């Protein structure tokens, strides 16, 4: 026969479960943000490299932004500013340290 559930034990158990869920959500969000920061940085670096080696002009940033937004319509983060933000003007360590919002 199961032991009757005490109200205080249940509430304590529920509180610990809620805390674990919130902690896991925070950790997952941080992992996603970390990957996105690296992705945006890499996109910006790729654009800069093409501009330097292939002679692409500044207007390519707008075109890449539009094409990425079309390819991924439900995603955010492909504005011209985001695509160009990683032109070595903001060191990656600063982005991580200050939580730069791309």
Q: Quote the average pLDDT.
A: 84
Low-confidence stretches: 91-102
- Describe the main β-sheet briefly: none
H and E order? HHHH
How large, in whole angstroms, is the Cα Rg? Answer: 22 Å
Q: What's the tally of helices?
A: 4
Shape: rod-shaped
- Beta fraction of the residues? under 5%
Number of strands: 0
What's a concise summary of this model?
The chain is mostly helical and 102 residues long. The protein contains 4 helices and no strands.
Overview features:
mainly alpha; 102 residues; disordered C terminus
Structure description:
The protein has 4 helices and no strands. With 102 residues, the chain is mainly alpha-helical. It has a domain of 68 residues. The C terminus is likely disordered.
SSE topology sketch:
Layout: H1 7-53, H2 59-71, H3 80-84, H4 92-98
